Amino acid sequence: MTPSCLAIRGLGVETTRHGAAVRLVDDVSLEVRAGETLALVGASGCGKSLTCAASLDAAPPGVRRTAGSIAIDGVEQAPADIRGRLVATILQNPRSAFNPVRTMRQHAMEGPAARGVPAAGRAQRIRVAMADAGLEDADRILALHPFEMSGGMLQRMMIALALASGAPFLFADEPTTDLDLIVQRDILDLLLRLTREQGLGVLLVTHDMGVVAALADRVAVMDAGRIVETGAVMDIFHRPAHPVTRGLRDAHLSLYRDRSAA
Amino acid sequence: MSALAAKNRDTEDRNVRARRRRDWTMAGFIVRRLLLLPVMLLAASIVIFLMLRLGPSDPALDYLRLSRVPPTPQALDEARRALGLDLPLITQYADWLWKALRLDFGQSYVTSRPVLPDLLHYLPATLQLAGAALVITLVISAPLGVWAARYRNGLPDQIVRLIAAIGVSMPNFWLGFLLALLFSVHLGWLPAMGRDGWRTLIMPAAAISFMTLSINARLLRASMLEAAGQRHVTWARLRGLSPRAVERSHVLRNALLPVITATGMYVGELIGGALVIESIFGWPGVGRYAVSAIFNRDYPVIQCFTLLMVAIFVICNLIVDIIYAWADPRVRLAAEGAP
Amino acid sequence: MSSLDAELAGDLASHDLIPPHAHGRRGFWREARWPARIAALVVGALALIALLGAWITPHDPDAVDLAIRLQPADAAHWLGTDHLGRDILSRLMAGATMSLGSVALAMALILTAGVILGGTAGFAGGRVDQVIMRVADVFLTFPTIVMALFMVGVLGVGLTNVIIAIAVTHWAWYARMVRGIVLSLRRRDFIAASRLAGASPTQTFIRHLLPATMAQLLVLATLDIGHIMLHVSGLSFLGLGVSAPTAEWGVMIADAREYVWTEPLLMFWPGLALFISVMALNTLGDALRDRLDPSLRAEHGH
Q1: What is the mean predicted confidence (pLDDT) over A186-202?
Q2: How far lies C36's CA from each of A146, B211, C284, C291, in Å?
Q3: What is the ipTM of this complex?
Q4: What share of chain C in percent tops pLDDT 70?
Q5: Are the Cβ atoms of C143 and B302 closer than 8 angstroms?
Q6: I want to staple C59 with a disulfide (CB 3.0 to 4.6 A). Which of A93, A94, C87, C190 is the partner?
Q7: By the CB < 8 Å criterion, does C233 face chain B?
């Protein structure tokens, strides 16, 4: 009954710069399977975050989706129908993702309200999700505003909201960038545990190969708006085929090589 | 089961305590702002007093002129002594302040009647007019601004832009006449003169409010467009909220904050507009009294009038500040000691 | 180190080593859209009329001739005559000098006071800054029309006093703006370069900060001048400005008051002149702002 496969097919994204149309994402196809984490990697500006947002029709203003579709178990879906219900999203820099003048409780209640969940069950679900995400004192936290919380807490809250939605798929757009190193590790551990426990299908966007090594089962490499290589995480690290992949892997490993040499 | 119930009770207690603590912060904010009020009024009164005393006019001369006494040197001397003008400035101010604190603002040079009661007699009409104009401003500009933002660069936006361009360019007294011509003389729908029920209120209030509603519609539009570009709006959409829900809870809610601040400025503009437009519609407000006092150089009236208007303006801004603090938790919860 | 690179890149990108006012203004006419062009033409025409005023009126604006009072428009009097038989068109043109001139003067006063006081506050900092800003704050607690009425009350009735009154009412806001601009410019490279080259603080201020400030200030002024014009004409309408028989648009509307119901055109023309002037100035201000500094798009109503 739970969906097992989310597919992005032939995504194309364009913008207009100085009067000319510029292709930012070109014919990108991805498959995310339940229980599996697919990492989407690439250098900054290659279009990976845009892929995530545009596939759900949430591209920033001035940028538009020109082609492509999103399908669950082979059935094409309208992005507006699956946002928040079948696909939850967590973003980087959680502080700006929350409305600065609203409390956590207000944020927590609007998702279920939009999904038509009866009011009685909402509070309990969010408490359970918050506990899963490592937020113990739910009532105190729900009364807080974003500026009263740390970056790590906000990211956990974001994850909690994603869990509470009950969506089987998760788009995680650089969820650990901008966080302190220790908090990063905690969030990564949390994501790993939750995806295993709940069998989520995760599309993880990142530029950090360390995160890929820690979380991913499969990897898709992007360069200049196109997918250049896909494969299992071990293959990507040990036998990278495409020069871009090799470049990413080498750059990442060189950090460790230098340290061990010193 | 009972452990869970106990835990629930604990969290409820903490919840209630947290909420009480936050109400107290709001109360603290209000109190702090209220304490500023007399300080600002004091500063304003000093400026008013100094400017009058240091100004080019001689109150003794005007007093004699208005009492129809020929200004011989003896008469002038007597008048100066009677008005206390020969004392040092600080003493004069202290005298004035002492009387003012007991709500004695002297007597009009023209009518010889106490100034404050007369002003307070005419004041409610002016405030009613300005208040009605404020209501019209907010009620009409809100849908216009939201409309213009929602259909950005489309027809509604162009219409609102045109209305706004006209509104900020039109002299309110000219507009008042035009409205009176149309609705009273030609159509006969509304009475032109006097103060008698909502029919007489609507035209002057509309004339005054046209400019502020134009400014506010543009402000709201700009504010909404800026709010719509924020990341939290994107994430709200990603969480599955409907476009209407996103607009209501995340765009509009945030876009209203600058509007609240601007309302303080509108109040000043609207009160000023009321003062100008009262004569056109025979509205029995404080404007006519003040203008004739200026013509007559009736200083006690001028002084009290200005201070009264400043007090009203400051109080209105205080109310606006409090509303803003209620609307934006960052203001009341973050900085102790205020922006 | 990379943040410094970024700063340098940003600075160079905004041509920071060249003071901001050195961008070309010649492209304005070419790039402006038609409302801005019409507005520029109208403002130009008004300025011309205001300057030439008395010499180009078809009739003497003060010539009273009760025999031809309240005439409708005809060949001799294109807009008819008023209640004293004076040619309305001539009075409108003469009024332009008064109305536009008084606003220009008021604006000049405001800008001078704003630049001197705000610039000193921003550049000198410390105690001086505090004192000036406190004084400005006190003046900002007065609503503009009330303060203007009070100033006229102190100084007496008359156009000069109205101009002074308007200047006193508005300077504080401009002083704040100038102070803000100066504070933001103080840290930029070309200021440091000037000081390193040995210029005294006053020289640095006048030669470098002032031109950069004036550009932004001019945009704010053109956006605001229409608003100020409405205030000035409002006070004149109340009778606190020029005295009869001088022609001025606000006063002409006040004079026409008794005849509003019978001869509405008397009130209509001067009001229309005001409306067109203010609208042209506002449109021009918007176009200038869009061209020179789009970041000022945020509304400031006051």
Answers
A1: 90
A2: 44, 21, 6, 11
A3: 0.89
A4: 85
A5: no
A6: C87
A7: yes
Residue B67's identity, in one-letter code, is S
CA distances from A21 to B142, B161, C242 (A): 36, 29, 60
CB A50 within 8 A of CB A65: no
Mean pLDDT, to the nearest integer, of A210-226? 91
Which residues, 6+ apart, have CB-to-CB distance to A91 below 8 Å?
A97, A158, A173, A174, A175, B231, B235, B238
What burial letters (b/e) apply to C184-221, b meaning 16+ CB within 10 Å? ebeebebbeebeeeebeeeebbeebbbebbbbbbbbbb
Is B262:C301 a contact under the CB 8 Å cutoff? yes
Instruction: Report residue C194's pLDDT band, with 50, 70 and 90 as the boundaries.
Output: confident
Against chain C, the chains showing at least 3 CB pairs within 8 Å are B
Q: Low-confidence residues of chain B, pLDDT below 70? A: 1-24, 334-339
E strand segments, chain C: none
Q: How many CB atoms within 10 Å of residue A71?
A: 15
Mutate to test the interface with A, among B13, B238, B250 (most CBs of A within 10 A): B238
- Please report the pLDDT score of residue C50 as a whole number: 86
Q: Which residue has the higher pLDDT, A113 or A99?
A: A99
Evaluate if residue A155 carries a pLDDT over 90.
yes
Give Cα separations from B91 to B43, B85, B87, B88, B96 (angstroms). Answer: 17, 10, 6, 5, 8
Q: Rounded to whole angstroms, how far apart are CA atoms B67 and B78? A: 13
Distance CA B164, CA B162 (A): 5
pLDDT given at position C17: 39
Which of C105, C96, C108 lies closest to C280, judged by CA?
C96
pLDDT surpassing 60 at residue C79: yes
Q: Any chain B CB within 8 A of the CB of C261?
A: yes
Q: Is the distance from CB of A167 to CB of A85 less than 8 angstroms?
A: yes
- pLDDT tens digits, C204-243: 777 777 777 777 788 888 888 999 999 999 999 999 988 7
Chains A and C lie in contact, requiring 3 or more CB pairs less than 8 Å apart? no
> CA B30: distance to chain centroid?
18
Q: Which residues of C touch B275 (CB under 8 A)?
A: 145-146, 149
3-state secondary structure chain A: CCCCEEEEEEEEEEEEECCEEEEEEEEEEEEEECCCEEEEECCCCCCHHHHHHHHCCCCCCCEEEEEEEEEECCEEECHHHHECCCEEEECCCHHHHCCCCCCHHHHHHHHHHHHCCCHHHHHHHHHHHHHHCCCCCHHHHHCCCHHHCCHHHHHHHHHHHHHHCCCCEEEEECCCCCCCHHHHHHHHHHHHHHHHHHCCEEEEEECCHHHHHHHCCEEEEEECCEEEEEEEHHHHHHCCCCHHHHHHHHHHHHHHHHHHHC
Minimum mean pLDDT among A44-58, A175-189, B80-94, C182-196: which range?
C182-196
Q: What are phi and psi of A36, to 5 degrees?
A: -120, 150
Residue C7 has pLDDT above 80, yes or no: no
Annotate B74-115 with DSSP letters as a single string.
Answer: HHHHHHHHHTTTTS-HHHHHHHHHHHHHTT---B-TTT-SBH
Q: How many inter-chain contacts (A to B, CB under 8 Å) are there?
A: 93
